[in-house]
Amino acid sequence: MVALKAGWLAVLADGHPKTAADIAAITGGEPELIARIMRVLTATGVLDEHGVRTYAVNPVSRTLLDPGWTNGLKHFFDHGGPVLLNLPDYLARNGYKVPQDVKTGPFADTWGGKNSWALFEAEPARGEVFHSFMEKWKEGLTIWFDKYPFEVQLSDAYDVSDDVVLLVDVGGGRGHVLQEFVKQRGRRKNRLIVQDVPGALSPAEKLQPFGIEAMAYNFFTPQPVKGETRDSYLTEKS
User: Fold this and answer.
1) Three-class SS of residue 99?
2) Would you say the pTM of this structure is higher than 0.70?
3) Contact predicate 42/50, CB 8 Å
4) What's the 3-state SS for 172-205?
5) SS3 for 58?
6) Residue 105 belongs to what H/E stretch?
7) Per the count of CB atoms within 10 A, which of 7, 105, 129, 151 is most buried?
């Protein structure tokens, strides 16, 4: 995370090996410190070493330079790290019992009484880090409609009416699963709805080209979409 935040990995992104002194000249870091951090990264396979204090990216570091994966590391370090550091004291204060309420669990205890969703809503920049990571993490994974015989099982509901809800993605974040559904299956008359807490949803204008509706919803409350729905599908929540 240090090398990412300091820009040291970004300097190597062009594929040309650079020395610690080269990196320091570009980023302003101290060569000795850069060499110490890079020593750990080469030993763990994140970077390759091409001579004395000379470094180059490899497939691992190229992956980490992707903004989505960078945000994944940032999420675990910036949001999860403080929770882990607080966990021993939290458990001791609570008699080593299993937390029973998200509002008083270890995350909320660390972050001033806010669970993760409340924190991301209160501080959108933090939410952007998390949701960017979630979008990246979903890439390349098998999606339910890749295996489910959708057209066969739901043929009576397909392309029926603009008023009929075909799918409701509960806890669907920015709607990336429904967007992929539309890309693969095309636009349909039926309504497609993605539900999540307000801070997780994409702006409506980003979903409109796919014919997807964004609906703010807490899945611990009764489901508001009823009656007119032909089929609802609850995706796995990452």
Assistant:
1) coil
2) yes
3) no
4) CCCCHHHHHHHHHHCCCCCEEEEEECHHHCCCHH
5) coil
6) none
7) 129
